[in-house]
């Protein structure tokens, strides 16, 4: 009996030690992030103004803005989302529900997991050869969006599979017992019940893509643009234009890189302000993911 009590006390000490280490690691990360945000805000907040958002880049720091950068970021992310969502969700559903469990499906799963860890510069080099030179899409918004879509595609596939796998098997069996086909079971039950996890994975993947710089520099993103792409909606028939897809582009991380490479301190403060805007966009996307996850979870009753 004494030995058992001694063993229990020892295990409790290890649990306490592990808990303290976890708290220490969590607060270390939070304090580091807080220090970076305070430093960034002290330099960037004075630069944030309406003029900063509606001005093009300039040789003069007091006249420089991020209009072309945030418009380019928005359009590139629009192409990325439209490309990766249907492809990633469909691939995840197929691998989880339709693919036979054999060596080929195992090989595909292993490769998808490995692709999630490939450095982003490799995707940039692949996109340069495939989209720019082979398919002749040019150094355009379309190429940038497709490149980022390839980058986050493994994340979306894995998130979709995990969301579907978390649904109890009883749901599948009950639907099929009532005569539903496999597609009806997926459409009416698996996708609605897994929507929270799927959307969370998609938005977190997009949050990673919005901060990527290396693959976009590889495919030829410009660092100085003083014009905007053509508007996607016009007042003349057919009212919708896709010309903007072939336009040159820049994004917020590249604009920051351009300003930080200059020796003047005023440009560094502009880069800090652009960084605050980028962090706000990323936090907004993560906040949306949290909201959607809790909203969809409230609807689930099983």
Describe, in plain words, how this protein is organized in 3D.
This protein starts with a helix and ends with a helix. It has helices at 2-44, 50-54, 67-98, 103-115, 120-134, 141-165, 169-177, 182-209, 214-218, 252-260, 265-299. It is an all-alpha fold. The model has no long low-confidence stretch (mean pLDDT 85). Helices cover 73% and strands 0% of the residues.
Shape type: globular
Order of helices and strands: HHHHHHHHHHH
- Work out the helix count: 11
Gap from first CA to last CA: 44 Å
Mean pLDDT: 85
Largest sheet: none
- How much of the polypeptide forms β-strand, as a percent range? under 5%
Q: Which spans have pLDDT < 50 for at least 5 consecutive residues?
A: none
DSSP helix fraction: over 70%
Gyration radius from CA atoms, angstroms: 24 Å
Q: Total strand count, please?
A: 0
Helix/strand structural class: mainly alpha
List keywords for this structure.
302 residues; 11 helices; globular
Short description:
With 302 residues, this protein is mostly helical. The protein is built from eleven helices and no strands.
How is the topology of this model organized?
Elements: H1 2-44, H2 50-54, H3 67-98, H4 103-115, H5 120-134, H6 141-165, H7 169-177, H8 182-209, H9 214-218, H10 252-260, H11 265-299
Helix pairs in contact: 1-11, 3-6, 3-8, 3-10, 5-6, 6-8, 7-8, 8-11, 10-11
